[in-house]
């Protein structure tokens, strides 16, 4: 008899009854596993007779229980862990200032030699009792940094060394430990080493909370500090303290939040957020939606609904056509592969001189596709393009979509929550007629990364595409057909309870605070535009939302990249370039809630100084785009 697979034996039910009746017997030997076939007696260890052949070892079970109870923390343990974790958070947040010497980031590998160029000879390495510094790009001791002391700091003619995590400088380079930052004539390099880039390993036995937090806190020196006021690249993510508390509460209570039968209140919290956002855009109460892991998943859920409604037969996928503008986010086309529509046709519609989808060209594309027996099924409009911040003409696109029986999806991931601002409401005219919307609370509502939201105007269509058919193990669960469970409105199951990270900040601060923060960013973008517009040698594009493009006209792209390097080299600001309609621009997005006028003033002075250093020919004009 194989006693290692106890549950498969024919005596299972009989043995279970014996356990319940506490039928104890004494046996001679201790057992390395819970089950045995030994029958020798005279031991003081209590065993349960499972059957005529199997004995259950209670001592072994007790040892397992004692170990498992380690997971059951006490209030004192939780308080200690939270206090120490908060101390690390506070130390990191103190660095999110233009005045802090570490800047917005230690350059990630992908930006080496591009956005944050380190020139040879610019940086000095200084050793002291508590720090190793490397010029504007400093490596310092503290919660996240290498410390001197037992690990001595030694200086020589050409180098400074702090063992075991060494910082070295030579004629052409600065190195910081196993994870090295090197400066040379043309590049910044970030090396790799087990002490800096590899997290604390997963081990058989645990370590102290101090060691765990010390290891985790290194992340603060190996990341783009998205919440830094000088982080003006991409679309920076932000997070507030109430949002972090919301995540803590969600993980601690840990409800299954996708089904009313499991936790009605958790479902209601999510539905309240969805309906509130729907009202912001003018959607009817019959709309439905869900919180997702981000804008791409929100878009995928919407596109799935569009596919099922407009292209119900898979044999038509290869002739189906998706229409985007040349500035539509790349995540939209990516969704086609996940949806099983890799063979679908994608048309990229050019933008006009205001960087909006050209509706006349869109119409021509559709007419030509219809003539060629293709199936136009989906067009995506954007309210806040990532490159420029431009807004597509939604009413005109809606008219074309209606004419050709197409689904209209609006990508409002970046720009969507500017609808809160009275000065921007007109930009969202027509969005209320869209069939679906994707918007990111982890952008405009300053929630942590991993917070998207999808809305479908006709909620029944969304439900039809995602309704879950429960397995037999859930057959006793009480259900009500009138309940709109989140698990029936997305492909996700067992998802994180995302509502608190959105809801708690809104409840604590009120909508007005977020409206003012977003309006401030709109005003700061206008302020930057007007200040740069008066600067010689600078061509600047008037912003629609909070993104500003500028460049030096009449020079090579390499000269504009040199301007970028001059602006970003000391680490106080992080901006990037983008290419729009074949023209390279420096791109600034003002979105971080910590960014205020004094920070923008510092940035403007940086641009002015950088232009002066480039010794461009004198001009008497400013070219504003």
UniProtKB/TrEMBL annotation:
Keyword Glycosyltransferase part of the UniProt annotation: no
SUPFAM superfamilies referenced in this protein's UniProt entry, alphabetically = PLP-dependent transferases (SSF53383)
- Top-level lineage group: Eukaryota
Pfam families with a match to the protein in the record: Pyridoxal_deC
Q: Which Gene3D superfamilies match?
A: Aspartate Aminotransferase, domain 1 (3.90.1150.10), Type I PLP-dependent aspartate aminotransferase-like (Major domain) (3.40.640.10)
Modified positions (N6-(pyridoxal phosphate)lysine) are 443
Tell me which GO cellular component terms the UniProt record holds: cytoplasm
The molecule here is called HDC protein
């Amino acid at each position: 008899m194989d006693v290692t697979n106890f549950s498969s034996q024919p005596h299972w039910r009989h043995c279970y009854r014996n356990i319940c009746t506490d039928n104890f017997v004494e046996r001679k030997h201790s057992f390395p596993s819970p089950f045995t076939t030994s029958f020798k007696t005279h031991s003081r260890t209590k065993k349960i007779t499972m059957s005529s052949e199997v004995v259950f070892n209670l001592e072994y079970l007790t040892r397992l229980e004692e170990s498992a109870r380690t997971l059951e923390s006490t209030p004192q343990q939780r308080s200690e862990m939270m206090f120490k974790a908060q101390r690390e958070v506070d130390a990191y947040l103190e660095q999110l200032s233009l005045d802090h010497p570490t800047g917005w980031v230690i350059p990630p590998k992908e930006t080496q030699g591009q956005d944050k160029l380190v020139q040879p000879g610019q940086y000095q390495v200084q050793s002291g009792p508590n720090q190793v510094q490397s010029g504007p790009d400093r490596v310092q001791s503290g919660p996240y940094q290498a410390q001197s002391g037992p690990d001595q700091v030694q200086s020589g003619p050409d180098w400074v060394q702090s063992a075991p995590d060494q910082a070295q400088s030579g004629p052409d380079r600065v190195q910081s430990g196993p994870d090295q930052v090197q400066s040379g004539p043309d590049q910044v390099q970030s090396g790799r080493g087990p002490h800096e880039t590899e997290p604390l390993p997963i081990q058989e036995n645990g370590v102290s909370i101090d060691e765990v937090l010390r290891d985790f806190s290194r992340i603060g020196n190996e990341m783009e500090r998205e919440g830094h006021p000088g982080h003006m690249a991409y679309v920076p993510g932000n997070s507030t303290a109430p949002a972090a508390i919301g995540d803590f509460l969600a993980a601690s209570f840990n409800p299954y939040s996708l089904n009313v039968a499991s936790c009605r209140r958790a479902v209601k919290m999510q539905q309240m957020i969805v309906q509130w956002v729907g009202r912001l855009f003018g959607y009817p109460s019959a709309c439905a939606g869900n919180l997702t892991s981000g804008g791409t998943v929100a878009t995928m859920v919407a596109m799935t609904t569009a596919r099922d409604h407009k292209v119900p037969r898979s044999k038509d996928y290869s002739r189906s056509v998706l229409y985007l503008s040349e500035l539509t986010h790349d995540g939209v086309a990516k969704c086609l592969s996940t949806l099983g529509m890799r063979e679908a046709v994608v048309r990229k519609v050019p933008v006009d001189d205001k960087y909006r989808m050209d509706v006349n060209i869109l119409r021509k594309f559709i007419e030509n596709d219809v003539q060629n027996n293709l199936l136009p099924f989906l067009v995506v409009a954007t309210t806040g393009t990532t490159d420029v911040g431009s807004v597509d003409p939604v009413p005109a696109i809606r008219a074309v979509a209606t004419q050709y029986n197409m689904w209209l999806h609006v990508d409002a991931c970046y720009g969507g929550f500017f609808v809160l601002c009275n000065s921007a409401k007109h930009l969202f005219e027509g969005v209320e007629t869209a069939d679906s919307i994707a918007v990111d609370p982890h952008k405009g509502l300053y929630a942590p990364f991993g917070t998207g939201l999808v809305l479908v105007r006709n909620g029944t269509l969304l439900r039809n595409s995602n309704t879950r058919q429960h397995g037999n193990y859930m057959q006793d669960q009480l259900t009500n057909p009138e309940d709109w469970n989140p698990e029936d409105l997305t492909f996700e199951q067992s998802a994180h309870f995302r509502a608190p990270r959105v809801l708690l900040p809104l409840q604590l601060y009120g909508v007005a605070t977020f409206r003012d923060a977003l309006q401030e960013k709109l005003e700061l973008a206008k302020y930057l535009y007007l200040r740069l517009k008066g600067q010689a040698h600078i061509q600047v594009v008037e912003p629609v939302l909070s993104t500003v493009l500028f460049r030096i006209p009449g020079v090579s792209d390499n000269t504009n990249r040199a301007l970028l390097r001059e602006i970003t080299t000391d680490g106080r600001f992080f901006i990037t370039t983008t290419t729009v309609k074949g023209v390279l621009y420096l791109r600034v997005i003002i979105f971080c809630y910590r960014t205020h006028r004094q920070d923008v003033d510092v940035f403007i002075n940086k641009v002015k100084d950088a232009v002066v250093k480039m010794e461009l020919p004198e001009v008497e004009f400013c070219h504003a785009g």
